[in-house]
Fold this protein.
Amino acid sequence: MTKKSEVNLMKNIQPIKIKIIVGSTRQGRFSEKPANWIFEEAKKLEGVEVELLDLRDYPIPFFDDSMSPSMAKGNYSNKVVKEWAEKINDGDAFIIITPEYNHGYPAVLKNAMDVIYSEWNKKPIGFVSYGSAVGARAVEQLRQVAIELQMAPIRNAIHIPLNIFMDAMMGKGPAGTEIFKPIHESPFGNPVERFFNELLWWAKVLKETRIKDLRSDKK
């Protein structure tokens, strides 16, 4: 590759598009609070475009197509699924906000991941969790799902501490996203910074690879 080609390639890599997915649709949900917080944190990053995707806005039916999404090659029969697929296809990296229900994650979130396939491939994903065991068990299961979707789940996750979760639910402490500010502080450095550094590293590397593969296919 020539120097000029390398420069043009890097231009195409920017901006990195991060899609933040609100993984709960229940009434009185907590998830939109950390979703709005991580959305504001992501907007501070350079070379990034960020969008909040609320599963309430995508009433996806439970998967019942005769053809597996991995075989559909992007040809989905349901209109809402098509709209969802377009949003996911546009993303370079993903952050899922998830509660933990009975050692797992919401069915509506699993369905949203299962109904499409190629749009997820070769992209990184990170998790922000809360609930029982600060959502750690839900995140572990989601990492397995992400791998099967040919994604790169990052090592670092953000687990909302129980005291912050409870204060936010009961309307105590600072208003809005300020209640999450203490998460930045840790004896081992800033976990939010580590989370985004890792997500963006993978996003840039994988986007560059996808662009190269696309160009190779067109030759």
Observations:
- The chain is about 45% helix and 15% strand.
- The mean pLDDT is 91.
- The first strand starts at residue 16 and ends at 22.
- The radius of gyration is 18 Å.
